[in-house]
Protein: Coenzyme A biosynthesis bifunctional protein CoaBC
Organism: Chlorobium ferrooxidans DSM 13031
Amino acid sequence: MRGKNIIIGICGGIAAYKTPQLVRVLKKAGANVRVALTDGGARFVSELALATVSQEAVYRNIFPPADTPETDYTHHISLGEWADALVIAPATANTLARLAAGLCDDMLTACFLTLRPGKPVLIFPAMDGQMFLSASVQRNIALLEKQGCLVFKPESGELASGQSGTGRMPEPETIHTHLEEALHSTQQESPLQGRSIVVTAGPTREKIDGVRYISNYSSGKMGFAIAGAAAKRGALVTLITGPVHLETPPGVKRIDVESALEMHAAARTFFQSCHIFIGAAAVADYRPAAPYERKMKKEAEEIEITLVKNPDILAEFSLQKSTKQLAIGFALEMQSDIDNARKKLESKQLDLIAFNFFDRKTSGFEVDTNILTLIERSGKTTELPQLTKHDAAERLLEVIEKQYGSKSPLHKNSR
Ligand SMILES: Cc1cc2nc3c(=O)[nH]c(=O)nc-3n(C[C@H](O)[C@H](O)[C@H](O)COP(=O)(O)O)c2cc1C
């Protein structure tokens, strides 16, 4: 906790009366604490008390008051960038909705949006028990959790309304413990922090004519999970994706493409500069040689479509990569064809290949789980159990972290 920069976001709930004590507890533990107070919060706890215990001005409005000469007009960005963690306590139903919707109408919501990827956000909702259980509040909590926020269920006990139930904000000492744990788990700096990682995902569409294409069943879920897991580790992630119905993971730069040739063109621009290239897309091996611009008429009994080979994007990167770059691929094969994956690893000179098979129930395209076998260049093979694609992505990233860390021990200075 010592030397860590912590923002405490305080909203308009009765539990706000506990927050000067929370500031004191964190200051005593050695943290630098700044407070972002909502207008609602200011109705319950005084700005003066918070400024006094934090020994810092309290942040409230994005727009500086007209009568005070302001020299820094970018607090709404720099405060979030400054923070190692954001603690929102108490979090009201109203602010949960603002955060989930991505609003940016005060300093607290601005901090939430500008916090660096990988920095923990701890949210402590506190409100009437019935309000907490309402469908809207639960939906907003689910959305925030999906974005990686740590949302702590309120405690049970006597509520300010005089009733008993779930809704209480934990005591400052308990919040301190949760914060320490969250900081500890993100503290071990990943060797991927600040590194440029390109992930390809999804299927490609290969045009037959103006209205038809050849494609495959790839959903993009595995590649998106990998991109999200890499961004959480502080990597600068570019996700080049074919047509999918997925939300972009937080902190990830997304480039949408359609065909293998478009994916190839987008990927090539990163071949020199990226540190790690992860080919998780199901790029079509072939494309129609001469796609028809307009709609083909249903006249002939038979038609022939000549297919030509598409570029092998991952192999092209891998065969020209420098000794400091890593190339990671996927091999979707029949369950018994793990040797094919090994051959691909060799022929494409990959650093790691993730073998998975295809049964459409537990592994492969479309489903939410995967069973990966990770084969490294050294021959080391790790068989993972059936995991959600998010957990499988975490495990893959752990292996990549080890490989990248050993390839580039002075990773901060390497290309
Ligand atoms: C006496 C009183 C107590 C309140 N307590 C809570 C509370 O514990 N939790 C909550 O979500 N809203 C509570 N509210 C409602 C919020 O103050 C209101 O929704 C406000 O707009 C929140 O603003 P903010 O989210 O910007 O801080 C309370 C309102 C009053 C008048």
The longest helix spans residues 389-407. The first strand starts at residue 5 and ends at 10. The chain has two domains: 5-187, 196-407. The chain has 14 helices and 21 strands.
